[in-house]
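User:
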Amino acid sequence: MTVIDNHEALAEDGELSEASARDYFELLKPRVMSLVVFTAFAGLVLAPGHINPVLGLIAILCIAVGAGASGALNMWYDADIDAIMSRTAKRPIPAGRVAPSEALAFGLVLSGFSVVILGLAVNWLSAGILAFTIFFYAVIYTMWLKRSTPQNIVIGGAAGAFPPMIGWACVTNSVTIESTVLFLIIFLWTPAHFWALALFKMRDYEAVGVPMLPNVAGERVTKHQIVAYAVLTAICAVLPSFLGFASFGYGLVAAGLGAIFIYCSIAVWRMPDGDLKMIPAKKLFAFSIFYLFAVFSALMIDRLAAMLVSQVGGSF
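Assistant: Predicted structure:
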């Protein structure tokens, strides 16, 4: 009997695992949550208008809790394959520290809590988008797309792209072309980012039968797709300048970052098929994380600089 089977038996007997607070924190996928919080905060900062700081803090906390809930539900459903993959074998459920039933209850309670509090405290549009995001990640991506199509990360990437739109909606109670562009930056960034990881984790995905693109279509097709999405991401990232909600200076910074992103993707494209070290893919994966943080940081700095100039100009 496997660890998971044992814990399912414990759950049926009504017994509880001896999980620590740290184990439950790991269920929230804190690394993913940090990216969600950061981009949601960017949405708050970039949105026109103002939000009460207390309400803004509540909004960020609710978005963070909702993201954590999605992570817990993902780990609950994927516990069987997590136990096999080297990257995930030490997660709380496959490692036997948290029972699957506890993770499920934890994720459901946090989901409901985050959505209701955000709706009551801020507005129901942002709460509705948050609810849809949780559903999309936990059900559409985790339970359906991930194990059924090599385009899983392309479609499923929408779940990770909603946070800045939620942050924007918290301030404006609307969805606009600007917030859609913020969504698209992350949506288009996700395939190149995740397929770089998939290239050097091909054996793990093959072992669990998850149809990631490198395993289904091969390395060469994956490398072509990585370059294509890197180019699309770089183009989309400069759109804020053309749409007027970021300066020309931001556009130059975004263009420079995009050029490096494309260069790294081309290095992956040039990498020989079957390369066991996968160094260019690992470098692209690492840089892609920096790229997203840098783009959204540049957008926020640009926005704050514009506000400062406006205030100084208004004082004369």
